Amino acid sequence: MENKVVVHLKDGTIHKGLTQDFDPASETFFLLPAEGGGIPLRVQVDSMKALFYVKSWLGNRDFVARQQFDQAKANGRKAIVTFADGESMWGTIPEEAPDDAPGFFFFPVDEEDNNERVFVVRSSLKDMRLVP
To answer: Which long-range contacts (CB under 8 A, 24 or more apart) does 117-122 make?
Structure first.
């Protein structure tokens, strides 16, 4: 299955495209550029800030995600993640996500967010706060 993604690297570089082979246990995966055609880019997972699974590559620069937890929709552990670059996101982490893995899936709390889910690389985080 092809996934529409946006790759944010730790150095600030952003790549938009499709991937079929991302596996959290692998060190690399391939990204087919969004522009169509071209040579697939091999991405090193440890060079990433995060892998954003998106509804649209365009997004909405004016969108401000809701920063509160809705008790009825909270599946998993509620968390606020803050990346080393200062970006913060509110969402949930699956209960089964191992605390010692190099990364984890994160689900934004706001359903209007362009991000459907995010694979967060732990080494790109400044802070992660679990919310009771």
So the answer is: 117/53, 118/50, 118/51, 118/52, 118/53, 118/89, 118/91, 119/22, 119/24, 119/48, 119/50, 119/51, 119/53, 120/50, 120/81, 121/10, 121/45, 121/46, 121/48, 121/49, 121/50
Indicate the length of the chain as a whole number. 132
Q: How confident is the model over 90-102, as pLDDT tens digits?
A: 999 988 877 778 8
Is 44 in contact with 113 (CB distance < 8 Å)? no
Closest CA to 97 of 122, 68, 123, 72: 122
Enumerate the domain spans of the chain: 1-56+65-132
Element (H, E) at 13: none
What's the token pair of residue 9? 């690297």
Is residue 45 within 8 A of residue 29, CB to CB? The reply is yes
At 12, is the pLDDT very low, low, confident or very high (cuts 50, 70, 90)? very high
> Across the strands, what pairs with 9?
48
